[in-house]
Amino acid sequence: MRITGRPAALLTSAAALTALAALAGCTVEPQGSDGKRGLPVHIRLPSSPAAAPTGMAGTTPTTPPPRATAPAPPPRATLPAPVTRAVPTTPAAPPAPPPRVLWAHGSSGPGVRELQARLRQVGWLSAAPTGTYGPQTERAVRGFQGKRGLPPTGRLDTVTWQRLRAMTHRPAQWELYPMGGQPAAAPDARCLTGRVLCIDKTSRTLRWMIDGRTLDTLSVRFGTQYTPTREGVFKVYWKSRHHVSTLYHSPMPYAMFFSGGQAVHYSADFAARGYAGGSHGCVNVRDEAAIARLFAQVKVGDKVVVSR
């Protein structure tokens, strides 16, 4: 059925408005069949935000202005990460090796004799040096070590030896051999021919020599400061097996006189006290068996050389 005139124009206007509203995202209120307005119809375009409904037809909802927001804080400065440097570690030093042992129980020789003489100087050993490291020497070393905070091993090591040497002096010959037994010095040139009692004051020894060959060596001691033993070349002029001094009334067994009242003879005092004592000028021998052998070999007229 074809509609003409004003109703058709109205219908056309309504359809156009509806289409315009749909494009604009508005809300339209279509009329019902009775000519009254119906419920509003909401039309939303995908790209448009939802519009709040209004009570008036044909009104385009306005988008509320954006809320003011505080400006974003400036980015915080980022500090560079600390650089960790590897600190080289010093390797731990290896433990020091124990001091080297110089002498111990059973050792012997001139070094042990010097050790014993030095121990006597500081009062740790009372016996005379023998040159053999025995129980007495071991106890003396152990006592010396313990007194000074050293490991009391009883063995003479480099540390103990250094400490002992710092506290003592170099032993003299009479300290090394307080009871005799020291090595003899080289013989005087005057002793190299004939039959000779070759006596050396420095080494404190007597060599019995025939034509430059040493047959026996004995330890001897001499006169004191005020009664010294005379030096020079002499001859044995008298032998007396059981002699007794007429001046000092002391026994002089195996006496072989060579200069006035001075003789080579056995001395019990020398055997007992060693070099702690002295004679009145005679040459004392401490080994009775040795002087007995010598007395049997020496003849009156044999040469006697006393040198220093």
TrEMBL record:
Listed Pro residues bias regions: 62-77
Pfam families cross-referenced by the UniProt entry: PG_binding_1, YkuD
Keyword Glycoprotein: no
Key words, A-Z: Cell shape, Cell wall biogenesis/degradation, Peptidoglycan synthesis, Signal, Transferase
Biochemical pathway: Cell wall biogenesis; peptidoglycan biosynthesis
Domain L,D-TPase catalytic stretches: 195-307
Feature: compositional bias, Low complexity: 49-61
Active site: H265, C282
The keyword Ligase belongs to this UniProt entry's keyword annotation: no
Superkingdom of origin: Bacteria
SUPFAM superfamilies: L,D-transpeptidase catalytic domain-like, PGBD-like
Region (Disordered): 30-81
Residues annotated as signal peptide: 1-24
PANTHER family listed in its UniProt record: EXPORTED PROTEIN, L,D-TRANSPEPTIDASE
Protein name: L,D-transpeptidase family protein
Organism of derivation: Streptomyces nogalater
